[in-house]
Write a structure and sequence with these properties.
2 strands, 4 helices, mainly alpha, two-stranded parallel ribbon, single chain
Amino acid sequence: MTGQPLGRIARRALRDDLAALLDIVRANDVAVVVVGHPLLMSGVAGERAQDAEAFVERLRSEVACPVVLWDERLTSVQANRALLEGNVSRRNRRDVVDAAAAAILLQSWLDAQQGDSNRFSS
């Protein structure tokens, strides 16, 4: 199984963002939602990580499937490197780096689940 970008949701208001995610979950029979946890390099949860944690709590109240936070540190760096190695132009990298980072994040989570008897825990 591999992590692949599904699309991009343009952020608007929380209610609209949740509605868009719920549509994706329902339309694609999603079993688990994996959300990036933007921890500081020290591993401490800063303001952005706390915002993600609050978002996950709200999302968990809206969907029937598990919602997990997964460390997203350095995924953008990895994505930029992969795109650079793939000779993607700087302009095009800006357009796709978030999707590539999300795919790396999801693949990291999927890889960690291999052989894990306590699947889908946060």
